[in-house]
Amino acid sequence: MPTADPTPILSPILTYRGQGAAKKGVDQNAHTIIYTGSGPPDKQASEHGMKKSPLRVIPVRADEKLDSMSRVNLGKTYTVEWNTKVKEIGDVEHNSLVRMKAYWKHLLGN
Question: In sequence order, what E strands does the chain have?
Fold first, then answer.
């Protein structure tokens, strides 16, 4: 997420070995679908606790795609130093970024 501080703060994107947020022990309320296609994939019926709207990422390259079971854990954040290598997937689409910031604010109390 872009900030005034040059050190980005990120939330992890996970598939939980293809289980999505249905994996036992996962806080579904802190997760949502994150996707790179034109529309979000369907959530699993067992992900009933996941209520947040999906977030779209505009990929940096046409061949960059997120797995259909990709979920972002908005309840966790990591500070990434400027010299740490990370894989660039793309940019969060504007409307999704507005929602993502609101989700963070609600979950993390910022």
Answer: 9-10, 13-14, 31-35, 55-59, 71-73, 78-79, 90-92
